[in-house]
Design goal:
seven-stranded parallel β-sheet; single chain; 40% helix; alpha/beta; 249 residues
Length: 249
């Protein structure tokens, strides 16, 4: 991680779960982290937990990745304050239980906006930072995907399928990972792209019906991200899938 010392990482959905854990680990490694989330109070709590010697490296900004104006406003501030972005962790995600055939279309749209368009909005702005530097910088964009971005499992016996739009958005991230790799290559950048696809993770997103199953911890996923970031310049971790032991899917 030496080459990332004092470089700038933007972490979306930094108020809890995987976003909070990767923020902690990046800060401990000497990276300057800008945490984005809607819940400013939760990020303030996280900042208070960080050792005082490193606390100045955690900057928090309220942002709703669903809204392009909110994203643009925040990235404008980041460019002004830090000169741009080196690492982007696209972690913000939304899962609302229900059936696609009957649920509110507004809710369906919110899931799509958060999980897909939020990634597009943030990655485009990060790309502007990468292109503006000369010579090209060694950047990295991480997409927090899911095993349901590769295949869809049946619900547990006696329960209904409640993932609705979520797997479709994660399948979109699987396709976007390869599209971004090709585009970043064709633009002659030195920016890596990595998809991290965990199984069940013990976070606020997990539906109650799955809470009794084996689960990963947010720290396990954060460790996977750190591994991808720490690879040498000629190594690109394209897809990394991690599952809890004993997962039935």
């Amino acid at each position: 991680m030496e080459r990332w010392q004092n470089r700038v990482a933007v972490v979306t959905g930094a108020s809890s779960g995987i976003g909070a854990e990767i923020s902690r680990k990046l800060i401990a490694s000497g990276v300057i982290v800008v945490g984005l989330a809607r819940r400013l109070d939760r990020m303030l709590e996280l900042r208070a937990e960080i050792p005082e010697a490193r606390r100045q490296n955690f900057h928090i900004k309220q942002c709703d990745v669903c809204e392009v104006k909110s994203v643009n406003d925040v990235f404008d501030q980041i460019v002004e304050e830090f000169g741009g972005v080196d690492i982007l962790i696209n972690n913000a995600g939304k899962l609302s239980g229900g059936q696609l055939l009957t649920m509110s279309l507004d809710t369906v749209q919110q899931v799509l906006q958060t999980n897909v368009m939020g990634v597009v909005y943030c990655t485009q702005r990060a790309f502007q930072s990468w292109r503006s530097k000369s010579p090209p910088i060694e950047g990295h964009v991480v997409l927090i995907n899911s095993i349901v971005g590769h295949y869809l499992f049946n619900p547990l016996p006696g329960s209904q399928q409640e993932l609705n739009m979520y797997p479709a958005t994660k399948h979109a991230l699987t396709a976007m990972t390869e599209l971004l790799r090709q585009e970043l290559r064709d633009f002659k950048t030195k920016v890596k792209v990595t998809s991290i696809s965990p199984g069940l993770v013990d976070t606020e997103l997990v539906p109650q019906q799955y809470k009794t199953l084996p689960m990963l911890q947010a720290e396990d996923v954060a460790n996977a991200i750190m591994y991808a970031l720490a690879t040498p310049p000629h190594v690109q971790v394209h897809e990394l899938t991690i599952k809890p032991m004993g997962e039935p899917f």
